[in-house]
Amino acid sequence: MRGDQTAAWQVLAEYAKTFPGFDLRSEFARDTGRAAHFSQDAPGVFADLSKNLWNAKIESLLLQLAQQAGVFEHRYRMFQGEAINATENRAVMHWLLRQPAQGAASDALPSDVKASLKEVHHTLNAMLAFAEKIRADHHITDVVNIGIGGSDLGPQMAVMALQSFALKDKRFHFVSNVDGHELDAVLQGLKADNTLFLVASKTFTTLDTMTNAVSAKRWFEAQGCKNVSQHFVALTSNGEAAGKFGIQTCFGFWDWVGGRYSVWSAIGLPLAIAIGADSFRAFLAGAHAMDQHFLHANSAQNLPVRLGLLDVWYRNFLHYTSRCIAPYHSAFKRLAPFMQQLEMESNGKQVDMAGKALPYGTSPVLWGEPGTNGQHAFFQMLHQGTDVVPLEFVAVKNATHTLPDHHALLLSNMLAQAQALMLGQSDDGGYKNFTGNRPSTVILLEDLTPFNLGALIALQEHRVFVSGAVWGINSFDQWGVELGKVLAKDIHARLLTGDASGLDASTAQLLKRLI
Ligand code: F6P
User: Which of 134, 243, 249, 281 could make an S-S bridge to 233, C-beta 3.0–4.6 Å?
Assistant: First the structure.
């Protein structure tokens, strides 16, 4: 049942009307157990949700909402390999990519899913063996991943996040944009003979990626190198197209892996080369531990469930339209862009599963930047702006650098920001007045390890699943990206010929300026 058709939704809507009086400071004063009640451990992470604008009553109503909206049945269907991506008639099984080959949970899978699991491990073993071969090949100094969207953001984010585990004698480059400046700048620093290109594209048809791959191949040959098959590898579910491109080494994956959920598949090869097979397996193990938590933990202590429901509370009942992610670790530079695709491409939908227009908001706008940089840029608005933006801090207890003082300063800034948002400061309504009562979540990792990163990313995937399920939408298609692609084809042809006939006046005018 769609979220808004449940009884719990109506009760929450009524309750939200009384909410302007809610004050976090009084809640903490009234309830000494609040911090403990709204905090929990989950695999790889600890989360403190207590500085959010909710209480035990809201949480319990939200859990009823999840129950009544069928979130848990939907979760079961995903983990049974049912075709819950109905508009594309596909199963949604990125979780299978981190499922161990053996064990009671794997044995209990439906037989067709078990058959897929076999293929998963077959490919994983081959890909990790290849990664180890490249790691040992000192001749290869540069690895260039050519891909976009899910074929770029996941591996790029993870390679950066795990840089302290990465090989030091290879450089990793990520080329995504069809803007030739990007590829050109990377190529200028390369020697063809020492470079491995990974052409990462689920479909192997994406214009941006194919244009970059063709140009990279042309450049490679222009350097006098003939052995394309030795220096180009494909990561794709369209092996045939990769073959036509001249690529012989191809690591495949399946239509049941969505692009934004594909870092666990062959798309993770740059990460596997960077951190090695054992660490890549640890990355998968962390995600698997979070899968098990999501599947089996009691819903009141289930972190993806709690986060996803909090997202619904903010979006639909307090009407907040965005969420800010502030990782206090510079290795998380690409976490916000990764999460943008995860949340906004999954849940940026305006119709329900039956194609009916939704009467409520879905995906918030997700944005962010590592702290402390954000503090000196946009935090002003978070503290004193007219809109309330829930903030999600991500911090790591232990640093891997050896500079004294820095880490304690970094962490104290993170704690202070969360505190300032909540406590505020009164100045008789003047310039220095902070209303406070502004919500934030803190997610803590003990160390930024492959296991913990895997768990953190799987946590984010599942929280998006939970809110999407309450909203009754298909979180696993992305039809909204198609129209622009079709129009770009038409406009590209016109840019070459100068034909502006039949175009709207604005586009025609701009086109004329650009030819
Ligand atoms: O256009 C959006 C999209 O389809 C994303 O969903 C996907 O991650 C990205 O493009 C890249 O697609 P592909 O891996 O097929 O090149």
Answer: 249
Known catalytic residue: 168? no
Residue 155 Cβ contacting ligand 1 at under 6 Å: no
Give the position, in ligand 1's atom list, of the atom nearest the Cα of 267.
Answer: 14
User: The pTM is what?
Assistant: 0.97
* Minimal-distance CA residue to ligand 1 atom 3: 149
Active-site residue, 376 included: yes
Catalytic residue among 27, 59, 345, 461: 345
Amino acid at 474: N
What is d(CA 180, CA 146) in angstroms, rounded to the nearest whole number?
12
Pocket of ligand 1 contains residue 452 by CB under 6 Å: no
DSSP 343: I
Kindly report the three-state secondary structure assignment for every residue of 272-284. Answer: HHHHCHHHHHHHH
Pairing of strands 232-236, 249-252: parallel
Rounded alpha-carbon distances, angstroms, from residue 185 to 111, 168, 182, 426, 459: 49, 21, 5, 51, 35
How far apart CA 451 and CA 447 sit, in angstroms, is 9
| Number of residues that this document lists for the chain | 515
Rounded to 5 degrees, φ, ψ at 254 are -120, 160
Q: Which atom of ligand 1 sits closest to the CA of residue 236?
A: 14
| Predicted local distance difference test score (pLDDT) of residue 336 | 98
User: 150 CB under 6 A from ligand 1?
Assistant: yes
**Domains of the chain listed by start with CATH number:** 3-69+297-477 (3.40.50.10490), 94-279 (3.40.50.10490), 480-514 (no CATH)
Q: Is the shortest distance between the CB of 154 and ligand 1 below 6 Å?
A: no
Indicate if ligand 1 lies below 6 Å from the C-beta of 260.
Answer: yes
How is residue 88 written in tokens?
């594309």
Radius of gyration of the chain (CA): 24
DSSP state, 189? T
Per-residue pLDDT reduced to its tens digit, 328-387 = 999 999 999 999 999 999 999 999 999 999 999 999 999 999 999 999 999 999 999 999
